Amino acid sequence: MLRRALQVGVPGSWWRQLAVVEATDSTNADLAAAARSGPSEGATVLVAEHQRAGRGRLGRGWQAPARSALTFSVLVHPRLSATRWPWLPLLTGVAVAEAVRRTAEVDAVLKWPNDVLVDDRKLAGVLLERVDTPAGPAAILGVGLNVSATRTELPVPTATSLALLDAACTDRQPVLLAVLRILQALYGEWVDDLDGLHASYVHRCSTLGRQVRVDLPDGSAVTGVAESIDAGGRLVVTTGAGRRVLAAGDVVHVRPAS
């Protein structure tokens, strides 16, 4: 069903290659290998019915039973400065959250930098990876979205799924199509109108305005109020010692300060 949905449901020249595989270790790794082997233009989508060894940020593992989640990756070829790239996982999060709101009718929000939450439980995650190709640097956007998983099938106790939320839709096909359509539109905003994308992200970001603890790789932590997202997609935290500006790559965890 997902294969047919991709073939007939996402028209337009932006999506040049659309594929579904029964099982693989990692859709991100598969797209990276394909991109390194030769040039390609346009956006490529690879969906796995079962992803056996998915990855999140900082090499964290992510697994789900077959057909219980949407696990897919998108390969794009940005032609903008690398300083804009941190917005790619953020815009993907907006696409996932908005698609879930429209199709499943749940109040999905965004946790900076790469999670989609409902009721403070993780529904989906996003992973950005850069790969060097014969045509120049490419970006791979990996998404894992829990759809029909039961409580015992979820990877961590703080996660949730559309089924557990009694969502209006637990069919992966319409959710996937909605994500891809919205992602295409937001990618265009990222290229042409970053101000609009910034406003869309801030509107959905539940991290802002909260007292947070940001754990750093060296074992230290920054505690304060999450004040804003700057033009570079970085989190601005107001602490007792002043403002700290934190990039996603410099952060291990962002949690409520309590």
Describe this structure in words.
There is one protein chain. The chain has five helices and 14 strands. With 258 residues, the chain is an alpha+beta fold. The protein folds into two domains: 2-204, 2-Layer Sandwich (BirA Bifunctional Protein, domain 2), CATH 3.30.930; 211-256, Roll (SH3 type barrels), CATH 2.30.30. The strands form three sheets. The chain has a seven-stranded mixed β-sheet. Strands 13-12-11-10-14 form a five-stranded antiparallel β-sheet, with no helix packed on it. A hairpin with a 2-residue loop joins β12 and β13. α1 crosses α4 (172-192) and α4 packs across α5. It is globular. The N and C termini lie far apart (44 Å).
Structure described in brief:
By secondary structure, the chain is an alpha+beta fold. It has two domains: 2-204, 2-Layer Sandwich (BirA Bifunctional Protein, domain 2); 211-256, SH3 type barrels (Roll).
The level of helicity is 25-40%
Annotated CATH homologous superfamily of the largest domain: Bira Bifunctional Protein, Domain 2
CATH architecture of the largest domain: 2-Layer Sandwich
- Listing every helix as H and every strand as E from the N terminus to the C terminus, the arrangement reads HEHEEEEHEEEEHHEEEEE
Number of domains: 2
Mean pLDDT rating:
90
Q: Separation of termini?
A: 44 Å
What can be said about the biggest beta sheet?
Answer: 7 strands, mixed
Widest sheet: strand ordering: 1-2-5-9-8-7-6
CATH class of the largest domain: Alpha Beta
CA gyration radius, whole angstroms: 18 Å
* Beta-strand residue percentage: 25-35%
Global outline: globular
pLDDT < 50 stretches: none
Determine the structural class based on helices, strands and strand pairing. alpha+beta
**Number of DSSP helices?**
5
The count of β-strands is 14
